[in-house]
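user: can you give me the structure for this one chain? tokens are fine.
assistant: on it. calling the predictor now.
[tool input]
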Amino acid sequence: MDDELRDYFDQQLELVLPLLPEAVHRLLDEVPLVVEDYPSPRQMRQLGIRHRRHLCGLYTGIPLTDRSVQHSGVPSDVIHIFREGILSMATNRRGRIDEDELRRQIRLTILHELGHHHGLSEEDLEALGY
């Protein structure tokens, strides 16, 4: 990914973040949001992902619904969003990025991964429209 496209994505992210509800901002104060170009080979292997553009985001950690006192000392929760996957979702057949769709996909990905933080499954999130 070139610097221009990376900067464009990050500018769009900066426009989306202030529009998220205050409750989401409080959560993002507790669960860091990490923006990367694409998932690592290790992440792809662990998830069984063959094409890195197929992954827009990833929650790593222990969902709130599964936590107990036995989980002290485990690595912190993190929400990863991947520029390449999100951009591919917002690119039309002519190879042009739909800016509104890009912002929608960024928002959707963040909310989706926060849903996993709260213990929601893929099926739960799909039923909710995320």
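assistant: here you go. Helices lie at 3-16, 22-30, 41-47, 83-89, 99-117, 122-127. The domain at 3-59+77-125 is CATH 3.30.2010.20 (Zincin-like).
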